[in-house]
């Protein structure tokens, strides 16, 4: 008898960079009120989901060894959450192929959770609509709804309330991965500490930045990039200052710490410049790995599945 090997549903989910990350005060629930303009980048993770008789998680690719394969992984929690919602068991074999730096401030873990929600909705034929997936995503983490949404969006609340932002043209980025990660809660705590001690400047509202996005103008956008978490990330990892300087010296229009860091993102005027900046940064020895990326790109989406299933 022929045995049929189940084929996976494969979902690709993007990383993100915060073009603007305004951090408000600490709320009573332990979160900070954010105003964030996110852009989804082509640097992405692929998540393979296959019918199985137990829930398992495997990880391949960049930094795979440092990613948990148990309940500590957001994909595990995503599978359990969706299974509870569907009233079924969470039996699925999940393989994550990492392209996004781990603990890098680029929402890699959130992207994997978003991909799992989209993929299991398909694999288990649940028929949940986008709004239902967004709601489940927000339960898992503040950045999960954006990695479902993709493109460019304004996030408020914890970052989970999203509105699309008009963005013309593609923007070209160089992504510099630092040695070692930074914990997101630790970076937020460091910002609270810096604010309790002094009064670090806060970025204003993102109105001008949104005009530059609508115009598709990288040169106008560059000086408007801003991140309130950058001071805290630099305080915990002062060597990032060198990386930021090196990227601009190499020809980038601007460099920022991505989200809670420690990854640095450099906006370049075009793809050729991005490739040159990447080569120069690699030679400068200020970071672990360099990638070239572009954005905006779509949110988590099914790449392929077995149509005969
Ligand atoms: O929502 P998520 O689990 O991704 O958040 C991780 C941590 O980042 C939170 O526990 C909190 O310490 C911090 N955070 C915050 N304010 C936000 C989002 C995250 O303080 N708006």
Protein topology:
Layout: E1 9-26, E2 32-51, E3 56-61, H1 74-86, E4 92-98, H2 108-123, H3 130-140, H4 144-149, E5 152-156, E6 161-164, E7 171-177, H5 184-197, H6 207-215, H7 218-221, E8 226-227, H8 230-236, H9 240-249, E9 254-257, E10 264-268, H10 271-284, E11 289-295, E12 301-304
The structure holds cytidine-5'-monophosphate.
In words, what does this structure look like?
This protein is α+β, with helices and mostly antiparallel strands and 309 residues long. The protein has two domains: 9-165, Ribosomal Protein S5, domain 2 (2-Layer Sandwich), CATH 3.30.230.10; 171-295, Alpha-Beta Plaits (2-Layer Sandwich), CATH 3.30.70.890. It is built from ten helices and twelve strands. The strands form two sheets. Strands 1, 2, 3, 4, 5, 6, 8 and 12 form an eight-stranded mixed sheet that branches. The mean pLDDT is 95. The structure holds cytidine-5'-monophosphate. Cytidine-5'-monophosphate (C5P) is lined by residues 30-32, 34, 141-143, 158-159, 184-185, 188. Residues 209-283 form the GHMP kinase C-terminal domain. Residues 73-150 form the GHMP kinase N-terminal domain. Belongs to the GHMP kinase family. IspE subfamily. Catalyzes the phosphorylation of the position 2 hydroxy group of 4-diphosphocytidyl-2C-methyl-D-erythritol.
């Amino acid at each position: 008898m022929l045995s049929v090997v189940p084929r996976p549903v494969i979902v690709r989910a993007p990383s993100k960079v915060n073009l603007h990350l305004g951090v408000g005060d600490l709320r009573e629930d332990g979160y900070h009120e954010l105003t964030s303009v996110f852009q989804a980048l082509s640097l992405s993770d692929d998540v393979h989901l296959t019918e199985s008789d137990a829930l398992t998680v495997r990880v391949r690719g960049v930094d795979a060894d440092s990613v948990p394969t148990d309940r500590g992984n957001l994909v595990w929690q995503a599978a359990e959450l969706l299974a509870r919602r569907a009233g079924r068991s969470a039996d699925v074999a999940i393989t994550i192929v990492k392209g996004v730096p781990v603990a890098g401030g680029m929402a890699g873990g959130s992207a994997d959770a978003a991909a799992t929600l989209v993929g299991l909705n398909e694999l288990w034929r649940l028929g949940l609509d986008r709004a239902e997936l967004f709601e489940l995503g927000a339960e898992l983490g503040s950045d999960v709804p954006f990695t479902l949404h993709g493109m460019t969006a304004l996030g408020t609340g914890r970052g989970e309330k999203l509105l699309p932002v008009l963005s013309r043209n593609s923007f070209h980025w160089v992504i510099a991965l630092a040695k070692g990660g930074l914990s997101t809660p630790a970076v937020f705590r460091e910002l609270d500490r810096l604010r309790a001690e002094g009064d670090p400047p806060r970025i204003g509202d993102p109105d001008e930045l949104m005009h530059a996005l609508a115009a598709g103008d990288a040169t106008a956008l560059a000086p408007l990039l801003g991140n309130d978490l950058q001071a805290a990330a630099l305080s915990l990892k002062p060597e990032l200052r060198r990386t930021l300087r090196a990227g601009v010296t190499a020809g980038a229009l601007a460099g920022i710490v991505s989200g809670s860091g420690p990854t640095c993102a450099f906006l370049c005027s075009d793809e050729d410049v991005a490739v040159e900046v990447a080569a120069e940064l690699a030679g400068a020895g200020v970071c672990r790995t360099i990638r070239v990326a572009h954005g905006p790109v779509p949110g988590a989406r099914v790449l392929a599945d077995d149509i005969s299933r």
